[in-house]
Amino acid sequence: MTRRNIVAIDLGASSGRVMLARWDAAQRQLALREVRRFENKRQRRGGYDCWDLATLEREIRSGLAQLDEEGIVPDSIGIDTWGVDMVLLDAQGKQVGEAVSYRDARTHGLMEQAQHELSRSAIYARTGIQFLPFNTLYQLRALQQQPDWQARVAHALMIPDYLHYRLTGNLNWEYTNATTTQMLNIHSGEWDRDLLTWAGANVQWFGQPKPPGNTVGHWVNGAGIPVPVIAVATHDTASAVLATPLMQSDAAYLSSGTWSLMGFESLKPYACDAALRANITNEGGAEGYRVLKNIMGLWLLQRICGELQIDDLSALIDQTARQPACVSLISPNDARFINPDSMVNEIQNACAEQGMPVPQSAAALARCIFDSLALLYREVIHELAELRGKPFSQLHVVGGGSQNRFLNQLCADACQIPVLAGPVEASTLGNVGCQLIALGELTDVADFRCCVINNFPLEKFEPQTHRVFSVSQARFAMLSQPAKEPAYD
Question: Which of 75, 80, 236, 413 is catalytic?
Answer without folding.
Answer: 236
